[in-house]
Amino acid sequence: MITKYIVSRLDGMGLMFLAVMAVVAVFVPLSNLLLPPTSAFHVPTYLMALIGKYLCYAILAVSLDLVWGYCGILSLGHGAFFALGGYAMGMYLMRQIGTRGVYANPILPDFMVFLNWKELPWFWYGFDMFPFALLMVFLAPGLLAFVFGWLAFRSRVTGVYLSIITQALTYALLLAFFRNDMGFGGNNGLTDFKDILGFNVQAQGTRATLFFLTALSLILAYLLSRWMVTTSFGKIIVAIRDAESRTRFLGFRVEHFKLLVFTVSAAMAGLAGALYVPQVGIINPSEFSPANSIEAVIWVAVGGRGTLVGAAVGAILVNFLKTVFTSGFLAPYWLFLLGAIFVIVTLAVPKGIIGTLNGYYERWRGEDGEARWHRKSADDTTAATSNETGAGAKIHG
Amino acid sequence: MVDEKLHVTQALLYLDGVSVSFDGYRAIRGLSIYIEPGEMRAIIGPNGAGKTTMMDIITGKTRPDEGEVLFDAGKYDLTKLDETAIAELGIGRKFQKPTVFESHTVADNILLALKGPRTAAASLFGWRNNVEREKIDEVLTTTGLLDHRDRPAGVISHGQKQWLEIGMLLAQDPAIMLVDEPVAGMTDAETEQTAALLKDINKSHSVIVVEHDMAFVRALDCKVTCLHEGSVLSEGSIDKVAGDERVIEVYLGR
Questions:
Q1: Looking at per-residue confidence, does A200 or B24 come out higher?
Q2: Residue of A232, A242, A376 with shortest CB distance to B123
Q3: Which of A216, A392, B107, B171 qualifies as a cystine partner to B114, CB 3.0-4.6 A?
Q4: How large is the ipTM?
Q5: Residue boundaries of the structural domains of chain B
Q6: B39-61+85-252, superfamily in CATH?
Q7: Residues of A with Cβ-Cβ distance to B117 under 8 angstroms
Q8: Where are the domains of chain A?
């Protein structure tokens, strides 16, 4: 029954994506753990970590597509929500280190001892407990998005102005987190993690589990987003994207819809950051850098905005290219290539990869309303023509 | 507050002494118009007479500098409400330039306009997901768009977009409809059909029509108000207004 409900809300592309993700989620960790390194199907740990990182970016991209592709809110600061979720997880991991740190302080993380702090700042309370940290993973970015969105949407800040202030938001946080006296480890950020829920973060089993959870989160993030955009709520946010003031005159509280979708999206980005941190082993202020947020926008544009699957595909593809290009002699040219990809996609395939494929697919199946209408009116014309011999006088009369 | 205003007017829509300026330009100057429940009213006037600004004031897009704008026998002060709240009270608007949701299908445009709860929660969990198809098709039949129900609203013709917007108003089922230039860009046949459609709608709704096309206004056969430089120049039957020398003067120039 539930399965039927879920399937009814998916399109062909969505089902294909979920099928591939389900296989990846199960196959990659199992092959890493169970198959011998000599096997052709063995996924080495470094590769699993790399794919895991891509999947975190894919979750971020899906969250961005939800606000940009469907509601027209071009956030150039989504990296901030990702980083906040990452910091919430990082703070938990720091407190798990305990006496194993360089200074062996049972309460204070190393950087605080180094700065000669005597006690834990109030905002670090509770992060020794995983459920609290998990709550904060969603709450910290969600709350920031809620307050920011409440102010911005109520004042009807839209379009490029909104994009600029989201960019300013992440830049302000970047500067703030760089400061040592903010209490988040300053320039170095949070690192040297030991364990998560009692399991060693470096252990192969833990890594495989984290990978599985990341893939599962991507599936869930996709399903949640897909559900939101296929209900009437989705139709309303698209209406807001296309004609905001018209939607208002129909009696919809535009700012409530925007606020809800923005907050959900920010919490989703926070989850992506939280999964990212234990897999890469560090979180530092550079995650707030405006360039990161802009790169995320490029992933979504490349994959196809307003498709969700495209966002995930774009994130994985562009980051795969980034890995290939930045690890060889081509490294100095990566940013040129990224810029070129963006320009080419914008000019040649403005709907993005998946958006364009969807278009071909629908035309091939003749499934879009437009094709059906044209076919129908063609049939009508044929019918009228064949009648013409008999009723010609009537038609022309 | 409610009782105090009650003696002021029984009118459905009551504008009294309304003025508004944009950067020193007085678009509306002491405008007073009263619309009775069930009435159809045509508003005419040359360009810059303040017709669209008047619509903006009624629907909350523009706040007047002075004057009263009351709705439903003086029960609501529209100058204190925003667009959403005013729409919820039952004031629907069709724009001069047809504004439909172009990437949605024709049927979905009607679905979004349909009367019913408009909260985010309702749209996620309830009612709006399971509206009966008949309700939408009924509106589409009235507006002659049934054959186009699954086409994106962006690809239908200009005249069809005008009708779609009227259909959206019908779906919204407001107490009063403000219809801004419904026949702009329509053929004569389409104009005739639109006049018939509006007269039909007027059987169950109050309607204000802003229009330039005098033949159309004549076909509506209702009370006419002519605006000029932001206030009422002449009011009455079409023959009285069209015969008014001042009206002829502003239309033909001095």
A1: A200
A2: A232
A3: B171
A4: 0.88
A5: 39-61+85-252
A6: P-loop containing nucleotide triphosphate hydrolases (3.40.50.300)
A7: none
A8: 47-327
Give the per-residue pLDDT at B230: 92
Mutation for B interface: A150, A232, A260, most B CBs within 10 A: A232
Using DSSP's 3-state secondary structure scheme, residue B29 falls into: strand
B99 touches chain A (CB under 8 A): yes
Check: CB of residue A296 under 8 Å from CB of residue A284. no
Is the Cβ–Cβ distance between B33 and B99 less than 8 Å?
Answer: no
How confident is the model over B231-241, as a mean pLDDT? 92
Strands B66-71 and B40-44: unpaired
A251 to chain B: closest CA residue? B84
User: Using the beta-carbon criterion (under 8 Å), do A250 and B61 form an inter-chain contact?
Assistant: no
Closest Cα in chain B, distance from residue A21 (Å): 26
pTM attached to this predicted model:
0.90
Which residues of chain A are under the pLDDT cut of 50? 386-397
pLDDT at A380: 62
Output the CA–CA distances (angstroms, integers) from residue B208 to A130, A189, A241, A279, B187, in the order listed: 62, 64, 29, 64, 22
A150 close contact with B: CB closer than 8 A: no
Q: What is the pLDDT of residue B6?
A: 47
* Contact residues for A84 (Cβ-Cβ < 8 A; gap 6+): A140, A141, A144, A173, A270, A273
Q: CA nearest A226: which of A308, A305, A301? A: A308
Region of A198 please: left (phi>0), alpha (psi -120 to 50) or beta: left
Alpha-carbon separation of residue A265 from A88, A160, A178, A213, B155 (angstroms): 17, 19, 25, 19, 32
* Closest C-alpha to A63, from A294, A319, A311: A311
Tokens of B22: 């944009």
Q: For residues A47 and A25, what is the distance between their CA atoms, to the nearest angstrom?
A: 14
